[in-house]
Amino acid sequence: MNEYEIMPGIIFDIFYFPLVKSTILMLSTPHLLTGAAIVTLIPDPNLSLPLSFISHFCLDAIPHWDGGGPEPPLTKNDYLRVGGDYFLGVSLVFLLTLGSNNQVLILTGAVLATLPDFIHGASKFLNLPFLDSYARFHSRLQAKLPLLPGLATNTVMAILAIGLIRF
Predict the structure, then answer these.
(1) Are 105 and 44 in contact (CB under 8 A)?
(2) pTM score
(3) The pLDDT of residue 23
(4) For residues 13 and 19, what is the distance between their CA atoms, to the nearest angstrom?
(5) E-strand spans in 1-43?
(6) What is the maximal distance between C-alpha atoms in the chain?
(7) Which pLDDT score is estimated for 81?
(8) Hey, where are the domains in the chain?
(9) What pLDDT is attached to residue 116?
(10) Are 110 and 35 in contact (CB under 8 A)?
């Protein structure tokens, strides 16, 4: 059993994906929600969109559990786990901002807050040597915690961001 699998029928995290015996680990969700909160608070895209991107590095520097990204070759379970986490975060942002005149801008900020992970992934999966120094920087920035305290940090960050979006 790897760090993502759980025994069938046991709720390990807030979200359980029983078809693949894998938790949806909220790895992208705090980033998505933080990017959305920034745009909600600062509606000027010239300021809020770059800040959303930069927020990714700030969150990574806060001790958290990141679970380690999937390694090539990707499995069906990797796609479901990562896709499920991303879908959860985008869905939350979408639902939390329904009716907002800035919903598209807010969703853009949310996605930009996860872009650093996509750039890191491109370096790893597409073998792009010109991104190696970026990947090293991004990896060194991670302040990692063990699973349970790290997920607690992720959850607190997500709840704070939701509070900023809604109020």
Answers:
(1) no
(2) 0.83
(3) 43
(4) 15
(5) 16-17, 22-23
(6) 47
(7) 85
(8) 26-166
(9) 95
(10) yes
